[in-house]
Fold this protein.
Amino acid sequence: MKVALIGLGAVGRGVAGMIAKKDLGITITGIADSRSGCIEDTGIDPAEVLDHKKKAGVCGDRKISAADVIKKADYDVLIEVTPTNALSGEPAIRYIKAALARKKHIVTSNKGPLALAYRELTTMAAKKGVAFRYEATVGGAIPIMHTLEHGLAGNEILAVYGVLNGTCNYILTRMVAEGLTYDQALMEAREMGYAEADPTYDVKGIDTAIKLVILANTIWGHGVKLSDVSVTGIDLLTPDALRLAEEDDCTIRLIAEAMPSRRLLRVSPRIIEKSHPLVVDGSLNALTIETDMAKEITLIGKGAGSVETASAIIGDLLYINDRYVQRA
Amino acid sequence: MKVALIGLGAVGRGVAGMIAKKDLGITITGIADSRSGCIEDTGIDPAEVLDHKKKAGVCGDRKISAADVIKKADYDVLIEVTPTNALSGEPAIRYIKAALARKKHIVTSNKGPLALAYRELTTMAAKKGVAFRYEATVGGAIPIMHTLEHGLAGNEILAVYGVLNGTCNYILTRMVAEGLTYDQALMEAREMGYAEADPTYDVKGIDTAIKLVILANTIWGHGVKLSDVSVTGIDLLTPDALRLAEEDDCTIRLIAEAMPSRRLLRVSPRIIEKSHPLVVDGSLNALTIETDMAKEITLIGKGAGSVETASAIIGDLLYINDRYVQRA
């Protein structure tokens, strides 16, 4: 199977590294970062590209753009792993459309296109008869989409509840464990690399809400938008609130909830029993899926990380290889 | 897709009930309990059979045996859900072999054949070009096999750690929560229907060990046997041991562990931090899968129950329908 890899940040480097290391039957024929690209129909050595990127700061030829790679390279699957732009979804939406127009399968870790153009992109993929997969967008390494689609096949999904932002969970865990204030815990999260310089998207609950929108649309296909989600962040939480919860053997977590029967689509700090499976520590993510037959299934794992996210992308690639490319 | 359903205990009734209730594209053409059977090439109404079984005590004609149904009915998949016999694996092994000889796919919830004849049966299924699936044998409703096979595709599985017996977990949870002795908690578990009259297999760790053997053979294919597992049960645990663990913010759970790199295959009560994802309450099951890319993924859910187990079986049926029957 031939792939074009667009984006060489932490996720892209993780994917390239795993393709180099593992015998997955995947050949990279096109690769691009934000400033350069490389096309080689006979295959690009990912280890060499990563090395070149490290030394030269770019992965290929500055005259070749990501758009060129998408339009000209010979590949089966576009791996779109450029950074999420939650306002415009670009340039990812443009990239994905260009590849779909060429009837290429899509694997992405980019939440922007999913949050902003879910229906348009999935409809276009269906019309072209190609796969559009995005396991990495929600819950990092946790195979949430696979579980919804296959593991729980035949079940009616009644609701989902999740801890979907590692930054918030790390901050809340530290506030409880060490009695830190929100600001102290945030500072520590920054130092540990769990929070970005501008943590607004994370701590205000927006990143979690985007993931909830992706989940809800995947499960129920109602075409909900970010503006449909009632969102409260963790930035106003006090150590007192956490202490009060502790007294009842509870704690507070930023929980995303979707339950169509109650028209519920909400992200908010919730008081939750400590023994509940969703109460995970540190930067972990967790999702409880409520179904008619299996009842409650909870999945826990790393919500971020270069190789962890690569795991989700490679799972999608192997699925496409098995279901589409090998069959063709 | 046509199925033959052998066994009408809690699991079989759950499967029949869900096939009756849901529009899954599944037709039952043969059905049998321990004393009767029914063959109907044009389809059997599962609701009617369940009703008849309730009133008459048998599901069909006493002159028709399970073996007759397996040999004579027209079906694509044998659903083998007779009770587990951990000593002989019979009559399930015989049933499965008879269906495999007819090139029928197999879905089973029966741990006996998996623990005693794993290689023989999987080899026979491979030779015949049919599927042999057993999601329901480990972790009840939790889609463990699907996750290992698909959700974590491309990952190397390094180890598994699990809480795989709801009876033991219920007893341990109650010993801690209420300060009960082992005997008191066991009595309560019996009253609640979480423990059988003879709980030996559960509390001695044997049921957990059988599930660990099934997991290990599925993941690594080394052909391990029950006798390869080092097994300690929970029946000698004292409230004092649990209290000591509590003092360090830990608790005790019956943990199944398999890690080939350390030649580890063990079931034993382990002291474990309370915040660890494997520490689940009551009769829940949990499994942590340690991999090279995704790192640790934990799955939690109901390990038993009629409809919950039916969920796993129906997931296997829909998988076979999608991958084999529809393609044929």
